[in-house]
Amino acid sequence: MDYLALAKKYKTPLYIYDFDHIKAQYEKLKREFNARKSLICYAVKANSNLSLLKHIAALGGGFDCVSIGEVKRAILAGGSNYKIIYSGVGKSDEEIKEALNLDILMINLESYEEMLRVELIAKELNKKARISVRVNPNVDPKTHPYISTGLHKNKFGVSIDEARKIYLHAHKSDYLDPVGIHSHIGSQLSDISPVIEAANIVSSLLKELRAADIDIKFFDVGGGIGIRYKDENEPNLYEYAQGILAALKGQDATIICEPGRFIVGNSGELLTSVLYEKRNTNKRFVVVDAAMNDLLRPSLYEAYHEIVALKDGAKSPCDVVGPICESGDFLAKDIELPRLEHGDLLVIKSAGAYGYSMSSNYNTRGRAAQIAIESGKDRLIGQRESFEDMIRNEKEFI
Ligand SMILES: *Cc1c(COP(=O)(O)O)cnc(C)c1O
């Protein structure tokens, strides 16, 4: 890729997404489930760029959303309402109402209390709400604690007992239609055996519910497939799919999975320019024009992102840091880079997932521009945020 030309054309920091790689990842996963009815619902929060969503919708993908804003993004980008799932531990009445009016595939319930709210609102709208229940199977996903979601100590989902209660209530309700069952135990899993374990637990409940005449059509195993940032094992997709199929034990259901990171993580890079090098006594810092507001993962999870310099030379250790006024503002620590000068480019790898979508205006820095590369051609898919954009909501009040 001609990074120099891209930096000239679009400036930096710049998010670059490889749409061909996104397609390949999508198809690789979809293929594993070919023998069965399946739906890939891409997790919008990993990267919610509208053109990227449109690209996935065109491949036939659905969407897993965690706010009504994400639901509306998915629909705006051409997503089919009947392929949209709405999850999340705290949905407001307004969000529930909108989701019901948009006739999405299902609202994923995360508590008994939420079921009562959804039932009440569906009654007011005189609708029957298609719902699923997020089961928390109490399985340890063995990932970073901030991205573990499948243990009872995490806030997500309900226990098997609670789920059973919700299904029995929903089954009798005139305003609820239980159509799905769901679990999502965590993110960046390099060992997928906990997902299979969860699928087995959830599948037993599915069987029991069907015996009670509750006709669940969608078996949703969530997301969480890990990717390689450095030297992690990438899960074997064949084993993943076969494990899920085996867990279903021949029960006829449409399998849904909700990959986010797997689809976009290694499809994206963040291109940044060196502002200067500095030394505080013996410590070497490379100060760049991207920062934690552009890519929060290193600061938030101490996540590793490979950083490649587009220039050779003898390497020495350094921290790569942004201009933000926080010591936590770093993109890499103690990595080896050649001597760099103002204007040199660095490529921050594996930045497609939870990169731009976690970005902010902290320090009144505009969000980066975003481009797509498809069949060798580049195009702008997200304007760099201007000062005017950042003050729009406040300006009229001064
Ligand atoms: C975040 C999330 C996902 C996607 O997780 P990845 O690790 O990016 O695959 C899927 N489902 C739900 C409910 C989520 O909250």
Structural class: alpha/beta
- Using only C-alpha atoms, the radius of gyration works out to 22 Å
What number of domains?
Answer: 2
- Compute the average pLDDT: 95
Amino- and carboxy-terminal Cα gap: 46 Å
Q: Which word captures the global form?
A: globular
Summarize the helix and strand pattern as letters: HEHEHEHEHEHEHEHEHEHEEHEEEEEEH
Top-tier CATH class of the largest domain: Alpha Beta
Strand content: 15-25%
What bound compounds does this protein have?
A: pyridoxal-5'-phosphate
Number of strands: 17
Low-confidence spans: none
Determine the CATH superfamily of the largest domain.
Answer: Alanine racemase
Largest sheet: 9 strands, mixed
**Count of helical regions:** 12
CATH architecture of the largest domain: Alpha-Beta Barrel
- Percentage of residues assigned to helices: 25-40%
Binding site for pyridoxal 5'-phosphate: 224, 258-261, 354
Domain Orn/DAP/Arg decarboxylase 2 C-terminal: 15-352
Pathway: Amino-acid biosynthesis; L-lysine biosynthesis via DAP pathway; L-lysine from DL-2,6-diaminopimelate: step 1/1
Pfam families: Orn_Arg_deC_N, Orn_DAP_Arg_deC
Task: Describe the structure in your own words.
Substrate binds at residues 261, 297, 301, 326, 354. Its cofactor is pyridoxal 5'-phosphate. The modification N6-(pyridoxal phosphate)lysine is found at residue 45. The chain has 398 residues and is of the alpha/beta class. It has 2 domains: 3-15 and 267-391, Beta Barrel (Lyase, Ornithine Decarboxylase, Chain A, domain 1), CATH 2.40.37; 33-261, Alpha-Beta Barrel (TIM Barrel), CATH 3.20.20. It is built from 12 helices and 17 strands. The chain has helices at residues 3-10, 19-32, 50-58, 68-76, 93-101, 112-124, 160-172, 193-211, 237-248, 261-264, 297-301, 387-391; strands at 14-18, 38-43, 62-65, 84-86, 106-109, 129-134, 176-182, 218-220, 254-257, 268-280, 283-288, 307-309, 315-321, 330-338, 345-348, 369-374, 377-382. The strands form 2 sheets. Strands 1, 10, 11, 12, 13, 14, 15, 16 and 17 form a 9-stranded mixed β-sheet that branches. The protein has an 8-stranded parallel barrel with strand order 2-3-4-5-6-7-8-9, surrounded by 6 helices. Helix 5 packs across helix 6 and helix 8 packs parallel to helix 9. The chain is globular. The mean pLDDT is 95. The protein binds pyridoxal-5'-phosphate (PLP).
